[in-house]
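can u do me a favor
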């Protein structure tokens, strides 16, 4: 029997789909009419109107709108004093807390760029992200010092570090900020920063290789905040629960900015916890929460909580909620409305399921097709390369047919949407598909396989190429392979994602060729140092050799299709214990328990 929430009723707001779209359009119309109005200005405007209303809440730190605006101004003046103007970058390595937003809003307000670094990275992976930002400075929270030290030996250039909460007098950012005036900035202090300037670098693995730093302009931040404020019908009465990482575009920009755009409040959790989720939602009196699909499944699997029957939630907004649990999730936790969407950090189009059709990631109303020019094109199943007709153009998929989603690149509100790309021009060019439907056109490659049903709704199918998604993160197999091949005793490796019943995304698996020097304990310890936990393969397969093409590209399709089933695979198979990190053999009994969901991955 499912648990039904029976506490205080959630505030009901009934709107038609047309009204929802209209509100989002209204909040994002004609941004260019005020080119110097940045998102920090929206916060300041609300601070003048409601200085005492909570803006950002957490268990350890909270800001009213007045306090948030003041903190933003202190960060802005600090950055200006260091010369962090346009073209200069500072890396931010800080776990979830209200100060995170104040930091990047302040620094970007005077023209600096803030690179939002994944706090789960270590060693070479972390060093790579710092290096590609070409940062002059790095802001380092106390709980991230050890991770940074693991990366220091691998850095090409070590930025000047500023620490928060360490008590170290050298580079103490707390003391430095206290010396700056919290009052509003003068026009001279603000400088000539416009909405088209770069505000953030947000990392995405893309389809291949190490993480890439995607450029995010002030215009996009304003657009994300306005769109989601309109689509969620946010008001000053709302409080959104945000337990997603603040270094991600959804958890760190779209979710909080949607509420701040509307003068509402955001409750920030340090991290997601199924055990604490409903306690937090009720304690902070939240009306909205931001999810990813895995989060919803974890909540369903968690023991029943009395607090789940006491919430006032009116809306859940997020991406990745699978159709098979959509209605069960909404029913068990009495969620009146679910707003599923699709977007990519560097992408130039988004989809929104404002009608709430279970399992769909959205649809594009015909009247808005000019604003979201997207299509689905056929691709080769093995190579991932788009197929072309005899005329040399891509082939659009018909309803029910799977292909790669692409978005037309153009100027703002005309002939498409801009693609701001990455810090690396070569990586930017890899994401652009030319001569798609007409000679000279250009489209952004999402790397995502989708299909459109007969009603025009789009459904996510999978990722193109090697990258797979696990625990809310994109895992690049080339990065995992590099780490594995550096381990003593490993001769060759092939990494891929495999589907496991009852889980979202794909679970990491690696096929290895090893010699007598290979040791599972050394292997596990090596990967825990080189890779974030979500990227360490859960399954191993020990092979005598790996298949490759004539051009030495690995053949993975057979490995993927055979998975980790010992009745199909003759090679030894192993499962990683998520607690100890030890690998143990998979026999048919263990396989049955994994498939039944009795073993946690």
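np, heres the sequence
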């Amino acid at each position: 029997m499912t648990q039904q929430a029976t506490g205080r009723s959630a505030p009901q707001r009934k709107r038609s789909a047309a009204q929802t779209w209209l509100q989002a359009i209204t909040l994002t119309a004609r941004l260019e009419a005020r080119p110097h109005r940045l998102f920090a200005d929206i916060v300041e405007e609300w601070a003048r109107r409601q200085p005492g209303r909570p803006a950002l809440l957490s268990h350890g730190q909270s800001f009213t709108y007045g306090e948030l605006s003041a903190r933003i101004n202190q960060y802005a003046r600090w950055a200006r004093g260091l010369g962090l103007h346009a073209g200069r970058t500072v890396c931010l390595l800080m776990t979830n807390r209200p100060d995170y937003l104040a930091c990047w809003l302040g620094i970007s307000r005077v023209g600096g760029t803030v690179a939002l670094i994944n706090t789960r990275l270590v060693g070479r992976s972390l060093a790579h992200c710092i290096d590609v930002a070409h940062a002059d400075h790095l802001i380092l929270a106390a709980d991230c010092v050890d991770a940074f030290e693991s990366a220091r030996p691998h850095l090409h250039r070590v930025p000047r570090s500023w620490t928060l909460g360490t008590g170290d007098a050298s580079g103490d950012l707390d003391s430095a900020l206290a010396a700056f005036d919290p009052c509003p900035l003068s026009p001279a202090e603000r400088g000539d920063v416009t909405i088209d300037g770069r505000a953030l670098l947000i990392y995405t693995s893309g389809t291949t290789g190490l993480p890439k730093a995607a450029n995010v302009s002030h215009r996009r931040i304003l657009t994300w905040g306005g769109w989601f404020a309109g689509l969620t019908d946010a008001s000053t009465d709302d409080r959104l629960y945000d337990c997603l990482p603040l270094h991600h575009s959804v958890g760190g920009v779209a979710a909080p900015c949607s509420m701040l755009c509307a003068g509402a409040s955001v409750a920030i959790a340090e991290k997601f916890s199924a055990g604490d989720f409903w306690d937090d939602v009720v304690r902070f009196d939240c009306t909205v929460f931001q999810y990813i699909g895995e989060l919803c499944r974890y909540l369903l699997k968690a023991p029943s909580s009395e607090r789940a029957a006491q919430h006032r939630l009116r809306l859940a907004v997020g991406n990745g909620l699978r159709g098979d649990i959509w209605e069960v999730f909404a029913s068990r936790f009495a969620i009146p409305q679910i707003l599923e969407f699709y977007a990519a950090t560097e992408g130039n189009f988004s989809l929104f399921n404002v009608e709430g059709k279970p399992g769909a990631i959205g649809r594009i109303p015909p009247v808005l097709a000019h604003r979201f020019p997207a299509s689905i094109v056929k691709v080769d199943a093995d190579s991932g390369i788009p197929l072309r007709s005899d005329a040399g153009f891509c082939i659009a998929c018909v309803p029910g047919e799977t292909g790669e989603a692409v978005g037309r690149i153009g100027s703002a509100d005309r002939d498409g949407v801009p693609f701001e790309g990455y810090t690396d021009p070569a990586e930017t060019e890899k994401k652009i598909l030319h001569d798609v439907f007409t000679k000279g056109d250009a489209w952004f490659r999402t790397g995502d396989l989708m299909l459109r049903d007969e009603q025009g709704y789009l459904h996510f199918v999978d990722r193109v190429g090697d990258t797979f998604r696990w625990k809310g993160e994109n895992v690049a197999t080339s990065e995992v392979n590099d780490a594995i091949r550096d381990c003593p005793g490993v001769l060759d490796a092939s990494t891929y994602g495999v589907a496991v019943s009852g889980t979202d995304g794909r679970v990491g698996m690696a096929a290895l060729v090893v010699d007598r020097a290979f040791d599972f304990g050394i292997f596990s310890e090596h990967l825990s140092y080189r890779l974030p936990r979500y990227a360490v393969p859960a399954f191993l397969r020990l092979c005598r050799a790996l298949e490759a093409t004539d051009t030495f590209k690995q053949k993975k399709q057979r490995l993927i299709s055979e998975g980790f089933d010992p009745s199909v695979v003759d090679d030894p198979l192993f499962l990683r214990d998520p607690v100890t990190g030890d690998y143990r053999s998979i026999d048919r009994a263990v396989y049955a328990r994994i498939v039944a969901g009795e073993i946690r991955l």
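Confidence is low (pLDDT under 50) at residues 1-8. hope that helps!!
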